[in-house]
Amino acid sequence: MRLTDTFAALREQNKKAFIAYIAAGDPNFDKSLEIMHTLADIGADVLELGLPFSDPLADGIVNQMAADRALKAGMSTARTLDLIRAFREKNQSTPLVLFTYLNPIFTYGFGKFQKEAVDAGADGVLLLDLPPDEAALSEELAQNHGLSHIRLIAPSTPPERVKLLAAQSEGFIYALSRTGVTGGHSAPAETIPAQVAAIKQHTETPVCVGFGISNPEQAALVAKSSDGIIVGSAIVKQVELNLENPAQAVREFTLPLIQAIR
Ligand SMILES: O=P(O)(O)OC[C@@H](O)[C@@H](O)c1c[nH]c2ccccc12
């Protein structure tokens, strides 16, 4: 269990998790693979791979453009699984979580997707538009073939649902620092500690916070009141700005963020 092992080791060392989000296949298959290895090399604890989808309703412009680049370069659900297999040839230890929406998984087939994702070397999945009650209804989803289902909790999530989601979430809990879409340049540091504490009342599962973290100061601040942080758009932006050699730009930008929480 790569996810649980990673979080257990971090907890033991009193360390916070750094979770890096990129779009699978952005700007193309080979460069994306190189970026994944680079992020693992510089110490990212978990990689979150966005499965490119044409209607990513919770994504801001930076992530939308990344998904677009990936789709134009031929990415698909099947190719994303190939990318995971290719990554696992050299890296068997860094947990990988897939981020996506119900639609592409539904089209592919829930059972088939979950089984193939685990076989390829994925550890978890975050289905952004899967309500918890629906999850309970679907037997196909419940039989997850060992793929951890990570749940999102927003500041607007009502308390009873926080309890339900916290109990259901496997691996870790993704707490959104604010409502809206991904990106932007700030996470509201004032409200995060209480939000994380409210979730922690219901569970021992680690709570990581994402949305709007884009510099070392914010990274350190948010990490202080949580078990880890998720950084997406700010890393993806480096790919956008350096399409020739994105891995190097990602390394230079991300390393200080990781160092800030160590
Ligand atoms: O981009 P930000 O603000 O750093 O937030 C992380 C985010 O990109 C990543 O976790 C993610 C990508 N797509 C999403 C859709 C919804 C919620 C979260 C996500």
Automatic annotation (TrEMBL):
Enzyme Commission number, as recorded: 4.2.1.20
Q: PROSITE patterns per the record?
A: TRP_SYNTHASE_ALPHA (PS00167)
**Would the keyword Membrane be found if you checked this record's keyword annotation?**
no
* Pfam annotation, one family: Trp_syntA
Please name the InterPro entries in this protein's record: Aldolase_TIM (IPR013785), RibuloseP-bd_barrel (IPR011060), Trp_synthase_alpha_AS (IPR018204), Trp_synthase_suA (IPR002028)
Q: Which UniProt keywords apply?
A: Amino-acid biosynthesis, Aromatic amino acid biosynthesis, Lyase, Tryptophan biosynthesis
* Active-site annotation: 48, 59
* Coiled-coil intervals, chain numbering: none
**Record flagged with keyword Amino-acid biosynthesis:** yes
According to UniProt, the reaction catalysed is: (1S,2R)-1-C-(indol-3-yl)glycerol 3-phosphate + L-serine = D-glyceraldehyde 3-phosphate + L-tryptophan + H2O
**A GO term, aspect molecular function:** tryptophan synthase activity
Pathway connected to this protein: Amino-acid biosynthesis; L-tryptophan biosynthesis; L-tryptophan from chorismate: step 5/5
Quaternary structure, per UniProt, is: Tetramer of two alpha and two beta chains.
Described purpose of this protein according to its UniProt entry: The alpha subunit is responsible for the aldol cleavage of indoleglycerol phosphate to indole and glyceraldehyde 3-phosphate.
Q: Which family does it belong to?
A: Belongs to the TrpA family.
Official protein name in the record? Tryptophan synthase alpha chain
Q: Which organism is it from?
A: Luteolibacter algae
